[in-house]
TrEMBL record:
PPM-type phosphatase domain location: 564-776
One family name in Pfam for this protein: SpoIIE
Organism: Lysinibacillus boronitolerans JCM 21713 = 10a = NBRC 103108
Record keyword Nucleotide-binding present: no
InterPro entries assigned: Bact_Sigma-Reg (IPR052016), PPM-type-like_dom_sf (IPR036457), PPM-type_phosphatase-like_dom (IPR001932), SpoIIE_N (IPR045768)
Protein name per Swiss-Prot or TrEMBL: Stage II sporulation protein E
Transmembrane spans: 29-55, 67-93, 105-125, 137-157, 177-197, 204-228, 234-252
Membrane in keyword set: yes
Length: 797
């Protein structure tokens, strides 16, 4: 076992041990709660709290039901063996009522009915007939209290995840006080020397409430607990006044901090000690409240803060006001920087940015020609084509073909008597044009980069100025739709609400049956709901099973792409050598954007291969840094022109496929035509821009085409067509084979292979050749009832 595997195993074991300890701790708390509720006697005769507690835990916390059962039976044992039998019969009858399939009763009614029927039968047997009226009254009170306590516990004991994700309402707080008061009545016998557990807990609870909620909460806690304890015991109702005044004074002392709360909570008891001698304010009482006050002073602040956040969460209006202030402040700073960027862009681009004058189709005579005695013969009425030769020389220098340059230079030498000086002037003129082009491209590159920075800032400011409550309203709409579908989603967060790039995280309870997976509910119900709300497909990006703070499943949904691309590549080098001047790359910039790069270096040498690969690599780097494609193309023009090699250029055919909206964007720098096959229709994307690195011509324009499902995109290098045969005939033949094969049911690999084999049967490929074939199809969600391909086949049949 490697060290990494050992560490992973150790982490898993530690998590299992931690979860086991957590389960034991919670189980112990349920055991003690059930124990004291079983000992809680109301009106000194009724024991109504054990069965409601069992019913709630059995329904919502099934794994802890055994702790509640044992705790309830143990608590009843101290009241007598008969009470143990009564409780066992009540639980058994309750389970029978709930499992009766033909008559489904509400849980509270089932609990009350089980308590009532068992008590009637038990008391009838004990009195051998109709029990006395007082006993009947106690039986009725026990059934009624069981009904009421079940309703309170249903409010208090929510699902496990709601303890951590929802805020405590006043109803839930009141229910908790009722249950806690019932537990305190069951603790009356827990007195150790001068220490009374119920008095200690009552004091601690009132002080903690005063610290968290000041006067209102502390007073409510004291009044509710004092009333319920007094009513349950049918005596010491004067303790209601003591508890209420204790809460009031403790809350008033909250301004003085913890010590103010502790001191204020003791003063009412001292007052009533001298005011009312009938109250049981003895040494046990005072010892217990002093211990409770001291322990209250040691409670960590983080616990009180956490409870305060649950009871009194910050209002959304305050949070939104803070967010608005932050948005306005940051926007103000960004706008200042935006003005500076705009100024620099105008300074560089708008004021001093003038395009270089492109060379005319027919160049002017050189200075050498103007002073030559044969000027009229070469440039005058007896023009012998010298202007055309010089124009061809500039063009061939731009293309970079050595053989063509050599042929044109030989023709110039044959006609010109001062060819050496002419070539010197031509080289100087070419150098001047390149310097001017380089200078122009440098300025334009800076201007485009400033424009990109300006666009990024505009986008950032626009996002910050968006409605701050948009996410809140969207989350509420989704939660409402899920509730209508009876889907329990206890937490939902919209991380991104941008069309086509939405991201939503939903927390659900784990699967409860063996055949159901954690993603079944999300795939079958939530995905269609999200599609109806946003009118775009979604997919499940990630599923995470969490155990902390409770067991749940987090499912991340994101916008699914509307289209998908399948592609294949055909590539060969001239004479089957190791080096090919063609390079290509196909990759995803993100799930909704697919990039295609095809470059052809000049020649078939190792240097040509290096040039085209370098161009592909630099273009990928620019795109990875979110550079605008137009800016990237001009930047590459500038960077590649700074190379030391002479006359080494490379074409670049660059395309982006928007898979969300079905658009094709194409940029070509010396690249060949791109074909889009749509049934019998052929769409061509062309451009006349110069190769990358040749700065005399700088225009690289973007062409946009709308794509449809079933379209086939073909991109190729110039080596596909021979220079010997007719170009138009080769193109027509290639497209005819492509249209014929594209409509078949073959795989895209088989299609491209068939096209190239058929084409090579007519024309020979003489140069490095690369052909890219891409097929665009619709993405069908996994929850869809049918697939379009199957539907169309069945319809046609």
């Amino acid at each position: 076992m490697t060290s990494i595997e050992w560490y992973n195993t150790t982490d898993v074991d530690d998590q299992k041990i931690g979860l086991k300890k957590k389960q034991i701790l919670i189980g112990s708390l349920f055991f003690l709660t059930a124990f004291f509720l079983a000992q809680s006697v109301v009106f000194e005769a009724a024991v109504p709290f054990s069965v409601p507690f069992w019913a709630i835990i059995r329904t919502k916390y099934r794994e802890y039901a055994k702790f509640v059962l044992f705790g309830s039976l143990a608590g009843c044992f101290f009241l007598g063996f008969g009470q143990v039998l009564i409780l066992a019969l009540q639980i058994l009858l309750y389970e029978c009522i709930m499992r009766f399939r033909y008559w489904q009763l509400p849980q509270s009614i089932a609990v009350s009915l089980a308590v009532l029927l068992v008590q009637i039968m038990w008391q009838g047997v004990m009195y051998q007939g109709l029990p006395p009226v007082l006993v009947q009254f106690y039986v009725g009170c026990e059934a009624a209290l069981a009904l009421i306590m079940t309703l309170f516990m249903q409010v208090l004991f929510v699902n496990s995840y709601e303890w951590f994700t929802t805020h405590w309402t006043y109803e839930k707080l009141g229910s908790g006080l009722v249950v806690f008061a019932a537990m305190l009545t069951g603790m009356q016998t827990v007195v150790i020397s001068y220490f009374s557990l119920p008095i200690f807990l009552l004091q601690l609870f009132i002080c903690f409430g005063a610290l968290v909620g000041s006067v209102p909460l502390a007073t409510v806690i004291g009044a509710v607990l004092g009333t319920l304890i007094g009513v349950a015991k049918l005596s010491f109702t004067g303790m209601l006044s003591v508890a209420t005044l204790t809460g009031l004074c403790a809350g008033m002392g909250a301004k003085g901090g913890r010590f103010g709360v502790a001191l204020g909570s003791i003063l009412p008891s001292v007052f009533f000690l001298f005011y009312d001698a009938t109250l049981p304010l003895d040494s046990v009482y005072f010892t217990s409240i002093v211990i409770g006050s001291v322990l209250f002073l040691t409670i960590p602040k983080k616990y009180s803060d956490k409870v305060r956040d649950k009871l009194f969460p910050q209002r959304e209006e305050i949070l939104l006001a803070r967010q608005n202030w932050l948005t306005e402040h940051v926007t103000y700073k960004l706008e200042h920087f935006q003005h500076f960027v705009q100024f620099m862009k105008e300074l560089v681009f708008d004021r001093f940015m003038t395009a270089p004058v492109e060379a005319a189709k027919e160049v002017a005579p050189m200075n050498t020609c103007l002073s030559c005695f044969r000027y009229d013969h070469c440039w005058g009425a007896q023009n012998n084509g010298m202007d055309k030769l010089m124009t061809d020389w500039f063009h061939m220098k731009g293309v970079g073909k050595e053989s063509a340059i050599h042929r044109v230079e030989e023709q110039i030498r044959y006609k010109c008597v001062k060819s050496t000086k002419i070539f010197e002037e031509l080289d100087t003129e070419l150098y001047r044009e390149r310097i001017n082009g380089q200078y122009f491209h440098g300025k334009k590159m800076i201007a485009l980069q400033l424009r990109d920075m300006s666009n990024h800032l505009n986008q950032l400011i626009a996002e910050m100025k968006e409605d701050t409550i948009s996410f809140v309203s969207v989350e509420k709409d989704i939660v409402e739709r899920l509730k209508e579908a009876n889907i329990e989603c206890f937490q939902l967060d919209v991380l991104s609400n941008k069309p086509g790039a939405r991201k939503i995280v939903c927390a659900l309870a784990p699967a409860r049956v063996n055949w159901e997976e954690d993603t079944t509910l999300a795939e079958r119900m939530i995905l269609p709901i999200l599609y109806e709300i946003f009118d775009e497909p979604f997919e499940i990006e990630k599923v995470v099973a969490c155990e902390i703070p409770f067991r749940h499943v987090q499912i991340c949904f994101r916008s699914a792409i509307s289209f998908e691309v399948e592609y294949d590549i055909y590539s060969m080098s001239k004479d089957a050598t190791l080096y090919s001047g063609d390079s290509h790359a196909l990759f995803q910039l993100h799930p909704g954007l697919f990039a295609i790069l095809l470059s052809d270096g000049m020649g078939q040498s190792k240097e040509a291969q290096h040039e085209s690969r370098k161009l592909i690599h630099l273009m990928r780097e620019c795109l990875n840094y979110n550079m605008n494609p137009e800016t990237a193309m001009h930047t590459l023009h500038y960077v590649m022109a700074l190379k030391q090699q002479d006359d080494m250029y490379a074409t670049l055919d660059f395309a982006l496929v928007d898979l969300q909206h079905g658009d094709l964007w194409s940029w070509k720098a010396g690249g060949m035509s791109t074909y889009i096959l749509r049934g019998k229709e052929v769409l061509k994307v062309e451009s006349n821009a110069a190769p990358v690195g040749f700065l005399s011509i700088s225009a690289v324009e973007a062409e946009k085409r709308k794509l449809k499902a079933g379209d086939v995109i073909l991109m190729h290098s110039d080596g596909l067509f021979s220079s010997v045969a007719d170009w138009d005939e080769q193109e027509e033949t290639f497209l005819a084979f492509a249209q014929q094969v594209a409509s078949t049911n073959k795989t895209i690999q088989e299609k491209l292979t068939t096209i190239m084999q058929s084409f090579q049967g007519y024309f020979e490929i003489e140069d490095d050749c690369t052909v890219l074939m891409l097929e665009v199809t619709h993405v069908v969600p996994t929850w869809a009832v049918f697939r379009p391909a199957q539907y169309s086949m069945s319809k046609s049949s």
